[in-house]
């Protein structure tokens, strides 16, 4: 057995993969990385991967863009090209749970693809030949995200609520559902509630990331801020929230998440 010196071990430390769909969802993470370590950009499969450190944690940060295929391809590259030890996704989502309001935060305990249906060959929602419909987020990473979110809400929640005229944000944990649709009607969000009564939020990437991470044995965690309630107001609410508010949440949550790991 060979022994490694401390610098060798440091160099061998596998990075954390951090991704979002859209640039606003990263907050100032890339700025923080640039200021701390500088950023090396690697282009692969028409995406830029930003390599550096955040509060001492080696990271590869990237944008998946929108939808399950985009997310699956991106997280696959994070695993195979960059050898990430774990994956964290931060972004926005539509609220589905009756108690989930715009400005709240949802951390996934489990994720599923609400638009996957190979019935009657396989049960609705089940990934054919894998035999799974609900993927589980990593409990340790999710607990770290949860703690970061609770601190963020305690320290900045009332200021955010005043600034953006929202109600005080709350943190929820539970089921996030993903599909290749922007859900934007009362009928569509009600259909989701009827089919999956415990769904808290709907988005377009999380369950694809969770499936790929499951298949490769890589821990993952997903945090979503609620930008809209997936009804007829969703397009306008999403657009405003994304531009004006999403970055403040991602910065606030990710700064505290990395601080706790440092
Ligand atoms: N490029 C476009 C489209 C974004 S689609 C734009 O910038 O305007 C919406 C994104 O936000 C997806 O990444 C999805 O994960 C999330 N999202 C927010 N609200 C959603 C909703 N009601 N239904 C589905 N996805 C939602």
Automatic annotation (TrEMBL):
Classification via Pfam families: PNP_UDP_1 (PF01048)
Repeat as UniProt keyword: no
Signal sequence interval, chain numbering: none
SUPFAM superfamilies xref list: Purine and uridine phosphorylases
Cellular-component GO terms for this entry: cytosol
Pathway note: Amino-acid biosynthesis; L-methionine biosynthesis via salvage pathway; S-methyl-5-thio-alpha-D-ribose 1-phosphate from S-methyl-5'-thioadenosine (hydrolase route): step 1/2
Keywords from the UniProt entry: Amino-acid biosynthesis, Glycosidase, Hydrolase, Methionine biosynthesis
UniProt GO MF annotations: adenosylhomocysteine nucleosidase activity; methylthioadenosine nucleosidase activity
EC number(s) given by UniProt: 3.2.2.9
Gene Ontology BP annotations: L-methionine salvage from methylthioadenosine; L-methionine salvage from S-adenosylmethionine; nucleoside catabolic process
The Nucleoside phosphorylase domain, residue ranges: 16-257
NCBIfam families, per database record: MTA_SAH-Nsdase (TIGR01704), PRK05584.1 (NF004079)
Name this protein carries in UniProt: adenosylhomocysteine nucleosidase
């Amino acid at each position: 057995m060979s022994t490694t010196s401390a610098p060798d071990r440091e160099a061998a430390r596998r990075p954390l993969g951090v991704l979002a769909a859209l640039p606003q969802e990263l907050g100032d993470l890339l700025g923080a990385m640039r200021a701390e370590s500088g950023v090396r950009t690697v282009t692969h499969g028409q995406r830029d991967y930003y390599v550096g450190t955040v509060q001492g944690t080696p990271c590869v940060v990237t944008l998946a863009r929108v939808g399950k295929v985009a997310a699956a391809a991106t997280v696959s590259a994070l695993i195979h090209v960059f050898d990430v030890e774990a994956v964290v996704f931060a972004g926005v989502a539509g609220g589905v749970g009756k108690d989930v309001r715009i400005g709240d935060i949802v951390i996934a305990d489990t994720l599923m693809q609400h638009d996957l249906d190979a019935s009657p060959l396989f049960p609705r929602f089940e990934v054919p030949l894998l035999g799974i419909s609900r993927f589980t987020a990593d409990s340790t990473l999710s607990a770290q995200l949860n703690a970061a979110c609770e601190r963020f809400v305690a320290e900045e929640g009332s200021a955010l609520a005043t600034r953006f005229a929202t109600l005080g944000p709350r943190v929820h944990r539970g089921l996030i559902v993903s599909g290749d649709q922007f859900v934007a009607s009362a009928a569509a969000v009600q259909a989701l509630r009827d089919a999956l009564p415990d769904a808290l939020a709907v988005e377009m990437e999380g369950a694809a990331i969770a499936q790929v991470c499951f298949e490769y044995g890589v821990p993952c965690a997903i945090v979503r801020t609620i930008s809209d309630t997936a009804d007829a107001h969703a397009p306008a609410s999403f657009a405003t929230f994304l531009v004006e508010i999403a970055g403040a949440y991602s910065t606030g949550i990710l700064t505290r998440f990395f601080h706790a790991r440092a």
